[in-house]
Amino acid sequence: MYGGDEVSAIVIDLGSHTCKAGYAGEDAPKAVFPSVVGSIDQMEVDDAANTDTNSGAATEAKSNVKTPDSDKNKGKRKLYVGSQALGYRRDHMEVVSPFKDGIVADWDIVDNIWEHAFRECLLIDPTEHPMLLAEPSSNPQQQREKATELMFEKYKVPALFLAKNAVLTSFASGRATSLVVDCGGGSTTVAPVHDGYVLQKGVATSPIGGEFLTDCLLKSLESKGIKIRPRYSFKRKEVRPGEFQSFDVDFPSTTESYRLYSQRVIASDIKDSVCRAPDSPYDESAYANIPMTPYELPDGQTIEIGADRFKIPDVLFNPSLAQTIPGMESFSEFAPSVRGLSQMVIESINKCDVDIRRELFSSILLAGGTASMQQLKERLEKDLLEESPQAARVKVLASGNTTERRFSVWIGGSILASLGSFQQMWFSKTEYEEHGASYVQRKCP
């Protein structure tokens, strides 16, 4: 048993879009940075070009992890973690994500992300703090064991606990039973939580998350002839006081993935600023002459965004809309199997036992970065009222504070790890040495 109340635990929520880390007991994470990293293959780049002065957050990584493109990773690669390191353009730098379909595919990157969170952001020594890691609701057994092994073997943490995202969101709003709708960056997951446990049979996921919507917006703007210039591709010069002109700067060895990453950062901001969920299903003719909303791009040009403000968010409720966006045709092959938000909620509740369905209908929690979109809660509630059984009292709950919606998983972890009654639940280092990594299944159900 680990009685770790004299040092505060560290809570880490590594999502598909951002990694959040901080101390238990605080009300928001200290460090929030992208979950993608910049990677430069040392084989391609000559060592001469490697005298890079700006490699503050770079870490050398010998890749011994088998990844699908492990032939490329045979040599050493240099990884750049954190928004500052990623914001700086480098030749041949690819932007890679450790996830594939929501599951960690490259532990090497995860390791570097954790390292960055501990050493650069929180400035702590991991051997002194118990760790609470948030994990996806349907995380396979070997993934949990691998995380446990890394934490105890490499970081030598005194104690560890793995908690499911949905459960933490539920705790963050002070409930033990609820239906958690988590709209994240990479996907949307609906998970029923009963008495603090996820009911696995009711978990539903869809590949439509914030990043998918960002892609839709990018393609839609491109089809209208609006070109988003990444920040590194131009310089602004003052011609007259207060008047700027921008000039293109050419970097031939910038990788495609980095260009796309930089464009997505801007598109994502446009989405956050102007998009809102429509009150009723999107209809081309009804929104044809809607007033335009202006948005100023980093290079100074102002663009006008019309019907897309409503069309893009509606993809969450009606995935087949994505096929009408030029450039998103590749989505059509798996579009029929992808369900809208309200269908997922109803399907998920129907898979649960009859006696808890009413309770789930009346406490549907919205969480995740994409859930902080305006009017999303009202629209979901409206759709569910139309589709749910008459007897059900539908109530969609979402914190009015967008920070709380974005970080609800982390906040739940922060609350849980600082509870006195939780302290005997930790999976301690001695238990790990005695029983091995597979014991995590018993300690962290």
UniProtKB/TrEMBL annotation:
<keyword id="KW-0217">Developmental protein</keyword>
<comment type="function">
    <text>Involved in several developmental processes including organization of plant organs, flowering time, anther development, flower senescence and fertility, probably by regulating the chromatin structure.</text>
</comment>
<keyword id="KW-0539">Nucleus</keyword>
<feature type="compositionally biased region" description="Polar residues">
    <location>
        <begin position="50"/>
        <end position="67"/>
    </location>
</feature>
<dbReference type="GO" id="GO:0005737">
    <property type="term" value="C:cytoplasm"/>
</dbReference>
<keyword id="KW-0156">Chromatin regulator</keyword>
<comment type="similarity">
    <text>Belongs to the actin family. ARP4 subfamily.</text>
</comment>
<keyword id="KW-0963">Cytoplasm</keyword>
<dbReference type="InterPro" id="IPR004000">
    <property type="entry name" value="Actin"/>
</dbReference>
<dbReference type="GO" id="GO:0005634">
    <property type="term" value="C:nucleus"/>
</dbReference>
<dbReference type="InterPro" id="IPR043129">
    <property type="entry name" value="ATPase_NBD"/>
</dbReference>
<protein>
    <recommendedName>
        <fullName>Actin-related protein 4</fullName>
    </recommendedName>
</protein>
<dbReference type="Pfam" id="PF00022">
    <property type="entry name" value="Actin"/>
</dbReference>
<dbReference type="GO" id="GO:0006325">
    <property type="term" value="P:chromatin organization"/>
</dbReference>
<feature type="region of interest" description="Disordered">
    <location>
        <begin position="49"/>
        <end position="76"/>
    </location>
</feature>
